[in-house]
Amino acid sequence: MVEFPLEYRGEGDKAARLVLVGFPSATELKFRISLCYNAAICRLDYTDETHPNTRRLPNDGLPAIVKGPHFHSWELNRRFFKGAPVAQRLELAEKFTVAGGFDSLLRWFCSRTNIEQPPSGHYIALPTRDTLL
Known about the structure:
The protein is of the alpha+beta class. It has helices spanning 74-81, 102-112, 129-132, and strands spanning 2-8, 11-22, 31-37, 39-46, 50-52, 65-67, 70-72, 94-95.
């Protein structure tokens, strides 16, 4: 796991951070990217896991279960945070179908969450399995 502090309008806040989680023993590309403010408020789970949308409403237009890569957007989960005295779980997720490598998917996430991206010529890769062992 790697955490990167985030700034808003030049101001740092220890609660705001981008968190990357890799799975070095996975045989396929597998990772999580979270935008956190104390707790995760938005997350891309690029994994083979299954996520139940048990708290979905009919207007959400979400399936009961999402299998494989999925995205927990702030827009879908905001209602669970309103007025909550403690950090909430990301209850709802939609199927994530964007294809690409880690670099392009990280850039997609940053674009989706309004995080300034590294220059386009700067390639970002997850460490390979043999690098971490």
